[in-house]
Design goal:
This protein is of the alpha/beta class. 36% of the residues lie in helices and 26% in strands. It has a domain of 199 residues: 3-Layer(aba) Sandwich (Rossmann fold). Helix 2 runs antiparallel to helix 8 and helix 3 packs parallel to helix 4. It is globular.
């Protein structure tokens, strides 16, 4: 779809800004031919992956979503007072839009802009949401917002409303610290460029190894299915030849780096077609699929400051080890 021509679905606008599958195929091929091999975690989120992640958020081993919900339930009025009503809510990694929609009564947004890499999943979510909020200006964009570049101005409707950039959950943890600083600095510049801009971001905090490893390797195997499904997505995008049965899910906590690592490990020696190239994986060889960095409250506050944010507030949910930060760009 031509990104200059928004596709109107009912009362909302949808922009496909992904740039086609060739770029994704090239990125996947380069990562899988690297040593060690890697797949970026954004490729988890095809239609099935998005649904599996929604299921992960319901698991007893994965308390993050419930901790975040408790924070909003307990401190929602204070957060709303600090944020202010009538903003344009810009939802980064919107998924099923449920987290943002839960804030609508508190924040009374002037509009809603949803950005996500899973185009079909986001379209369907916005169709449902628009039916429930018919008077709200809504725009969605299928976009890889982790890449450098200009933010899509066409989604910022109404344009005069101050913007609240919303990055819930723990997705900021998928960035290595230097990359997280660079990404947050992009948002800080966007906040500074438009009057009243601010960021509300969720952060998973450092906690015990057992709790963290259970959250990424649950008893039902939903996270394993989520991880393995990235190979199905790679098969489609890259015309690759992965057999999911050849691989197992591996997740562990690296205390020195304060991060969870997720890998796919070859069960046996395999040779995989990678769209015009091939690679042999030895038994036990791994493909890195995710880092999920954990932060201390003080450490993340310092990261925001180094990225160009000035005034900051935070709310902590101690039982689940989760925090929300509200930050405004330095003047």
């Amino acid at each position: 779809m031509d990104s200059a021509d928004p596709d109107r679905l009912g009362a909302f606008r949808f922009l496909d800004l992904l740039g086609g599958e060739q770029d994704a195929a090239a990125e996947l091929r380069a990562g899988l031919l690297a040593r060690p091999a890697r797949i970026a975690p954004k490729y988890f989120y095809d239609a099935l992956g998005s649904r599996l992640f929604a299921a992960i958020c319901c698991l007893p081993e994965y308390p993050l979503t419930r901790s975040e919900a408790r924070l909003f339930a307990t401190h929602g009025e204070a957060i709303a007072a600090a944020v202010g009503r009538g903003r344009l809510l810009v939802d980064l990694g919107a998924g099923d839009c449920a987290k943002a929609e839960a804030l609508f009564p508190l924040l009374a947004p002037a509009g809603y802009a949803a950005l996500d890499i899973s185009a079909d999943f986001l379209r369907a979510a916005l169709e449902r949401l628009q039916g429930r909020w018919p008077g709200l200006p809504v725009c969605g964009a299928a976009i890889d917002f982790t890449r450098e570049g200009e933010w899509p101005q066409a989604v910022f409707v109404p344009t005069e409303a101050p913007r609240l950039w919303f990055y819930p959950g723990s997705s900021i943890g998928n960035f290595a610290p230097d990359a997280a600083r660079a990404f947050l600095a992009r948002i800080a510049r966007a906040c500074a460029a438009a009057p009243g801009g601010a960021l509300l971001v969720g952060v998973d905090l450092v906690k015990g190894r057992a709790a963290l490893e259970a959250a990424y390797d649950d008893a039902l195997g939903v996270t394993a299915a989520f991880n393995l499904n990235v190979l199905n997505h790679a098969n489609r995008l890259l015309a690759a030849g992965f057999d999911v049965a050849d691989w197992r899910h591996v997740a562990f906590y690296d205390e020195d780096a304060a991060r969870i690592e997720m890998h796919l490990e070859a069960r046996r020696e395999v040779e995989v077609r990678l769209g015009g190239a091939t690679r042999r994986f030895a038994a036990g060889e791994r493909i890195l699929t995710e880092y999920s960095h954990k932060w201390t409250e003080a450490g993340f506050a310092a990261l925001l400051e180094s990225a160009g944010f000035g005034r900051r507030r935070s709310w902590l949910e101690e039982a689940g080890g989760f925090a929300l930060f509200l930050a405004e760009a330095s003047s």
